[in-house]
Amino acid sequence: MRWLRENFFGGWASGVFTLLLILILWKALPPFIDWAFLDAVWRPDPKACRAGEGACWGFIAEKHRFILFGTYPYELHWRPAIATVLLIGLWIFSAFRVFWKWWLSIVWLVGLTLIGILMWGGIFGMRYVENERWGGMILTLLLTTFGLAFAFPLSILLALGRRSDMPVIRALCVGYIELIRGVPLISLLFMASVMLPLFLPSGVTIDKLLRAQIAMILFAAAYLAEVVRGGLQAIPKGQYDAAHALALPYWRRTYLIILPQALRISVPPLVNTFIGFFKDTSLVLIIGLFDLLSTIKISLQDRTWTGFGVEAYLFASLVYFAFCFAMSRYSRSFERQ
Amino acid sequence: MGRHSGKAKRLAYQAAAIAVALGVAWFFVSNTIANLEERKIASGFGFLGREAGFEIGESFFLRYGAADSYGRALLVGLTNTLAVALIGIVLATCLGTAIGLARLARNFLLRSFAAAYVEFMRNVPLLVQLFFWYAVVTEGMPGPREALSPLPGVFLSNRGIFFPTLSSVPELQGFNFVGGMVLTPEFAALLIGLATYTAAFIAEIVRAGILAVDRGQGEAAHALGLSRPQTTRLVVLPQALRVIVPPMTSQYLNLTKNSSLAVAIGYPDLVSIANTSMNQTGQAIEGIAIIMAVYLTISLSISAFMNWYNAHVAFK
User: Fold this and answer.
1) Structural domains counted in chain A
2) Which of A14, A167, A320 faces B124 most closely, judged by CB atoms?
3) Exposed e or buried b for every residue in A265-288, given b needs 16+ CB within 10 A?
4) What is the mean pLDDT of chain B?
5) Who among B122, B264, B284 is closest to A285 (CB)?
6) Assigned CATH class of B70-313
């Protein structure tokens, strides 16, 4: 009773808010539940969907294969399915601190090789599937994974460079970081898709997926570098002095003493940046790659199923939310330790 | 290790860095020049003066028609970007501050609402949210004939939001409204999406800023006999602002940069118009250079202004 009074009617303003919010819930919740569940159409039947008042989840049921796997050959969907599970498994595995050993990189290497074999095929009697046909969930996950895997080492170098006492190196790193952070990701993606072919000698071509991946890496590196720099700055100066006193050369000093501490402090903000990056992979839709969001968007272009955008994007939100929420909980559990 | 050998090494490293940077730049530039010659693309900004030949859905300040030049089209794009960014920043700040304060409220319901809002908004990509709002505006709203009219003269329909101005009032003619001012579905979706998304981040900044103010400050203000609203306004907020301003700046910048997602839902912002121009003229390098230069200028000027403001509110 006391708890109720303190938390709901702490003063007249609090009381007004409570009543107002209850009123809003009272008005908005029942229609929403009717729409999303009670009146919803779960069968993949466009006629029933158009006739009914509720949400049309049948759309998702009908299109789930395309949404998850894009244009990958239909009878081979088991391959990206296993690859997706494997990749998510690798991420979960790496989340446990007990496994943060040197052999974790071997596990990743083996895992990614397996995923590569599954996705491309071409050996062990599996049909070859060129990467223009990859799409859906696995593409989003692969863009995130490889983006972070290459951007992270680059970002450490950039952060160290920005803190370097050599003016030229510092200027180059600051210039790079500020330039990339000052422009929208879209402009980098456009640049990669239109200008990268011009940058290379004629005859050398790289496919669209790789071009987008390069842009994502260059983009992520600048943002991660600022997080790592925060970690470097947060280490007590005594640690730098002590490392110096041991007369270790710069790279050993950095590798053995500074980085392990700096990265450990940076885990929560790093995970937050990872979340941002995972969300940003959805932008590859704009340059025509078939990631999770674009397979959903393309599904809506089917004549029989147009007009169910609200359902489709709610579904997309829930999928992205599940991944990001898990990561943000993880980062918060780290902060508490 | 002697001081001199250290100095020589540092010089060598820096010289190597310059050499690598120049080498990479030379590689790209020479390839680009060769490729452009091979494809017979004339480079330069001459195309800006040519006739654009495409219409732009909306323009806030400038008159524009298909006969105008590419330069003018891009200028319209820039004003559209600035319009949505400025209005978005104002809305996001108001909404974000309210939600940030709500997260600290003693009222349980209010607190939970605010927390759920922040958690959901931050964990869904902005692009998904923009598509969602666009779908809501175009699919969820009734057609012009059945338009909702929450206030006299204001009409909500799937053709946009119409409201009266001093000189004219929107009226239904044929299949759409004529007169008054209109917010197109694209603009409305972009604005709602940007403002509600950024508000979640601003809420967290405001909350952290207020929590950073020492409790003793509030207690001291209370002891002086200030009321709770007075304490917030006169004692807590001015101190919290110092913590809030720097991260807030980067949120404003993010909102401005994120407005470039307009291209995905068809709002004619700078990126969208530059993209159309690039497709029509093949002047990709120039188009991207313009986009980058504009955003860098905006970024640098917002951070310069915020640095000035920050120095203004700092402890003296």
Assistant:
1) 1
2) A320
3) bbbbbbbbbbbebbbbbbbbbbbe
4) 84
5) B264
6) mainly alpha
